[in-house]
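fwd from M.: "can u put these together and see what the complex looks like"

so here's what she sent:
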Amino acid sequence: MIEAVHLTKRYGTTTAVDDLSFTIEPGQVTGFLGPNGAGKTTTMRMVIGLDKPSSGSVTIDGRMYRDLPAPLREVGALLDAKALHGGRSAYNHLRVLALSNGLPLSRVDEVLKMVGLKDVASRRAGGYSLGMSQRLGVAGALLGDPGILMFDEPVNGLDPEGILWIRQLMRSLAAEGRTVLVSSHLMSEMALTADHLLVIGRGKLIADTGVQEFIDLSSAGTVVVRSRDDNLLAARLAEQGARTEPAVGGGLTASGVSSSLVGEIAFAAGIILDELTPQRASLEHAFMELTKDSVDFGASPSELASVGTDYPTTDGSR
Amino acid sequence: MTTALGPRAGRPAQPRQGGAGASPARFSDALRCEWAKLTSVRSTWVTLLVSLLLGVGVGALISYLAGSHYATGGFRGRAWDPTAVSLRALTIAQLAIAVLGSLVVTSEYGTGMIRTSLTATPRRGRFLSSKAVVFTAVALVVGEIMAFAAFLLGQLAIGSNAPHTSLAAPDVLRAVIGAGLYLALIGLLSSCVGALVRNTAAAISSMVALLFVLPGVVQALPASWSNVITEWWPTQAGSQVYSLHRSAHTLSAWSGFAVLVVFTVIVFTAALWVIEHRDA
């Protein structure tokens, strides 16, 4: 379980993460969703202690990450697949990690097999493609067989087979009772893998909810209706407080009414309906609705400096 | 592609306990990790080989040339110090050791490995200390090998052309052992500077300034200033430990060395503070 309480991170005058409070439960995949620069990576960096919160705290099963006796046995994190020494072989990279936490070296071979890198384990990791690096990063996260896993944009750079693999991996990790937190700026990806969503924009929590509830929450409740007399229907709907506008391809799009109410109004007015379709908002749409005020379109140069890259450079991190 | 997760695959959903009961990571684990890091990249071996070539190879060459010019009077008017001649090249070799010392820390930042390292070992003091211990030990072994090899080969190269000395002569053993100690300390100092500046080029430039440039610049100051600075400048004071003779405005062998030790401890403490307080 990951628990954040009033977690805040400021870089100078920019607030990257703004008073976030959430709990990430075990046994499900929690999607961490937000536009680029929303503070997802910064939040994850604070979870594993790479960045210090300006205020507030985040704990792993009630303890600070740095107080964990053997962190790799409890948390596996893949934040940046290229965060390794390119001159080391994949095997040596994992061996170094295993030694640091006193893990048995047999685990290195096990995880290499799991991610399908066994045959290339003796090659320099610097020569790996992004997809292979992602697999190596996943191997590193699984090394200590941890109960909590955190992946930052894991499907980036993966081919379709790799994307499918990582989805199935996350599902099966959660099914085993582990806590899985995965960030993405792609709604479609989250719709396929996540059970629960944590949505942030401009560092602020926008929604902490189930995937279906999230769609319902922001669903505009529109209805597409085609009738023999759209003008009359539009007038009757307006009388009932609904807004209408011409729908693409003919008919009306009515908002602020349910489809059954549209049916009742049409019946009362004696209008024959050809089509009556409630529109379920897609996750993509719901997300756009909720974050439209928090996308960094108008970022000033100083903001760009802090949101332009997922990782602040080492020199610019303060 | 399978998603099998080894022993855990197929287990029904159940709340997992955190790593309770798992054996905690110890300092010795961090030491083993750093040893594996150091020995698993090629640059370590290349740099160590270069430092040995510089220290021993160039040292033997200098000794041979010095010895062969002794008779023709190239050293007339100057004190003939065969120990100093044979250890002369260590002033160049120390740069190779300093480069490796910096790289041990700065390559973590340069490659991004630091984020993975600090995720595995979030106690940053432990991380930096284990690195320092492992590298200083390696630098000490290499430094002593280099010092003894340079001395013995150097005396051989001076050969019959000029008076040479042996480890049995007064203070010579201290100077040769001291040379290895000095090299180890320069390596550690360079690692600490690397942790402060987090950048290979900046760390090496700083070490070059500390070792060569600033001591040279000081010579341009009035004698009342330059004498004091020369006497106490940490790297110069430290080098007294491999010098047989005390010239004017220098500390004794061990007090000079102590100055370098204290300076290194101060820089190490600063590095610990910085790594603890700056985001990785």
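replying to her w this: Chain A touches chain B through 68 residues (CB under 8 Å).
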